[in-house]
């Protein structure tokens, strides 16, 4: 096993180092931990940070941390400005849990510049193969934007026919739509920059979990810089800061070693076939749900109002909570459902889906933090055979589709070449494209699924997630028709609530009067 010093040496990436800056923070965060803890038992009112002596009370902080009383560490938040971090690292670590907020540069709307990707440690021969592949991926990206523009323009003006008279005015919008699809050929190593805000306890968990699949090297580098920035701001956190659990001591690593034969390549291939077969024609397949979800929801509504079943039927109770004509806060842009007594009844029915999305789409899907997924150890799903998602618009652009498939095949050939030259799965994966297929299971209660669908059934949502949401809403409607008919995009909810304007997007109006359509009539190309 490598020592920590050896690990840090091995971690040295060949690309520009990640930049980590503590942009905003509580003034005295660790003293605030103690002040909040003491306030719980104070007979004199609120205990102020300023009156905290670390010499006197430092032991209390250590004691409550060790005992697992961690809410006191949740008050202080830290906002980091992060640059030169890969999309793979963001997907694998920063956005793999619910306790954060990020605002990152969007590949949908911001063109990706050349030479902005992570280059992990590898020898000169492997590096030449790796960087050469990126140059070709960047060239494919630029060519695809050009090749997709005509088909994108056709789809755009089919949706906005009156705009066809002013084509020059909307040329940039069309290019951005083409760029959104072209980004699928870019590698998951592509750099991003973001604001990332977390609480003190989440940062402590980062420090403890920095060595885990799929990006332990990049994670160690970034998290160590975050910890260094924390300690510079408030050295008192050193009292409780724990060392990372070594990768070799994580349950996932030990299980992979112990069950190596069980997880053979042939078994992995069979898993992929089984998973895909289970989806049928769906992007997202309903795998499980609350059998009595409608009755449970109706009972919860009756409990809120103290109503007997004889006076309020299941159908009417469900309508009271889910029909925006009755529950008008469903038409609000400010999401108030978790704060309203009536809407909280929606927390009880649950739904579970098996999903297959591209790495790019899943990177957006996982931002819905209250619909958690069990995402894979990614290299356990990989083979040297191309395994990717193809966006719908490519069906209408044969030259672009041909280039797209060529680019995919070339990316997987490069992945195989790197593996043959001794590059680890961890580092070889960085060359794979955003189109890489990710398979996982995702669950949600109705309250949060409703919010997600209100966002992702909008025609402005990323196309893959939109298709997955259509699949989900249709299937919920089949098993729970009195619930499913209210899983709708924001415009339809607002129209039912009598909220104006019906579309909340203003100049970003998608071009379709979706509130007049049944979900089975939804169609999109871009």
List the helices and strands and how they pair.
Elements: H1 4-10, E1 19-25, H2 29-39, H3 54-67, E2 77-86, H4 87-94, E3 101-104, H5 124-159, H6 171-182, E4 191-199, H7 200-208, H8 216-233, H9 251-258, H10 265-279, E5 284-289, H11 293-305, H12 314-322, E6 350-358, H13 359-365, E7 373-374, H14 398-420, H15 425-428, E8 437-445, H16 446-456, H17 463-479, H18 481-484, H19 490-497
Antiparallel strand pairs: 1-2, 2-4, 3-4, 5-6, 6-8, 7-8
User: Assembly type of the shown chains?
Assistant: single chain
Order of helices and strands: HEHHEHEHHEHHHHEHHEHEHHEHHHH
DSSP helix fraction: 40-55%
User: Distance between the terminal alpha carbons, to the nearest Å?
Assistant: 50 Å
Number of strands: 8
Computed CA radius of gyration, to the nearest angstrom: 25 Å
Strand content: 5-15%
How are the strands of the biggest sheet laid out side by side?
A: 1-2-4-3
What is the overall number of helices?
A: 19
- pLDDT average, as an integer? 95
The biggest beta sheet is recorded as:
4 strands, antiparallel
Structural class: alpha+beta
Q: Which outline best applies?
A: globular
Structural summary, described in words:
By secondary structure, the protein is an alpha+beta fold. It is built from 19 helices and 8 strands. The protein has a 4-stranded antiparallel β-sheet with strand order 1-2-4-3. A 4-stranded antiparallel β-sheet has the order 5-6-8-7. Helix 2 (29-39) crosses helix 3 (54-67). The longest helix has 36 residues, at 124-159.
């Amino acid at each position: 096993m490598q020592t920590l010093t050896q690990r840090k040496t091995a971690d040295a990436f060949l690309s520009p180092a990640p930049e980590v800056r503590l942009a905003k923070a509580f003034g005295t965060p660790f003293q605030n931990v103690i002040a909040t803890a003491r306030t719980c038992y104070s007979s004199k009112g609120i205990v102020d940070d300023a009156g905290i002596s670390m010499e006197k009370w430092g032991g209390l902080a250590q004691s409550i941390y060790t005992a697992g009383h961690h809410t006191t560490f949740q008050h202080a938040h830290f906002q980091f400005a992060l640059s030169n971090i890969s999309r793979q690292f963001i997907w694998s670590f920063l956005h793999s849990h619910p306790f954060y907020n990020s605002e990152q540069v969007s590949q949908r709307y911001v063109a990706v510049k050349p030479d902005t990707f992570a280059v992990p440690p590898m020898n000169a021969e492997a590096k030449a193969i790796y960087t050469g592949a990126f140059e070709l991926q960047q060239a494919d990206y630029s060519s695809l934007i050009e090749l997709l523009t005509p088909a994108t323009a056709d789809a755009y003006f089919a949706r906005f026919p009156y705009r066809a008279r002013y084509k020059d005015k909307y040329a940039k919008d069309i290019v951005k739509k083409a760029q959104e699809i072209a980004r699928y050929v870019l590698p998951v190593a592509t750099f991003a920059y973001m604001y990332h805000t977390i609480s003190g306890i989440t940062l402590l968990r980062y420090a403890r979990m920095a060595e885990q699949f799929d990006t332990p090297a990049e994670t160690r580098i970034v998290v160590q810089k975050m910890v260094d920035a924390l300690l510079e701001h408030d050295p008192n956190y050193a009292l409780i800061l724990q060392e990372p659990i070594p990768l070799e001591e994580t349950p996932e690593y030990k299980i992979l070693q112990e069950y190596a034969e069980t997880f053979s390549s042939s078994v992995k291939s069979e898993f992929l076939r089984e998973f895909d077969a289970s989806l049928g024609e769906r992007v997202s397949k309903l795998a499980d749900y609350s059998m009595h979800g409608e009755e449970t929801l109706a009972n919860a509504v009756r409990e809120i109002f103290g109503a007997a079943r004889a006076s309020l039927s299941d159908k009417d109770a469900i309508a009271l909570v889910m029909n925006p004509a009755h529950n008008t806060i469903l038409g609000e842009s400010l999401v108030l459902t978790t704060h309203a007594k009536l809407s909280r009844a929606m927390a009880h029915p649950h739904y579970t889906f098996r999903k297959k999305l591209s790495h790019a789409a899943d990177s957006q899907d996982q931002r819905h933090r209250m619909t958690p997924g069990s995402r894979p150890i990614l290299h356990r799903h990989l083979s040297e055979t191309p395994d990717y998602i193809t966006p719908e618009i490519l069906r209408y652009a044969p030259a672009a589709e041909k280039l797209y498939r060529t680019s995919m095949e070339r990316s997987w050939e490069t992945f195989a070449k790197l593996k043959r030259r001794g590059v680890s799965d961890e580092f070889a994966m960085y060359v794979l494209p955003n189109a890489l297929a990710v398979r996982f299971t995702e669950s949600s209660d109705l309250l949060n699924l409703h919010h997600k669908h209100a966002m992702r059934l909008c025609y402005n949502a990323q196309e893959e997630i939109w298709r997955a949401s259509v699949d989900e809403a249709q299937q919920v409607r089949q098993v729970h028709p009195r619930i499913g008919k209210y899983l709708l995009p924001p415009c339809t909810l607002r129209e039912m609530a009598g909220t104006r304007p019906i579309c909340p997007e203003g100049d970003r109006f998608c071009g379709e009067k979706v509130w007049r359509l049944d979900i089975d009539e939804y169609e999109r190309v871009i």
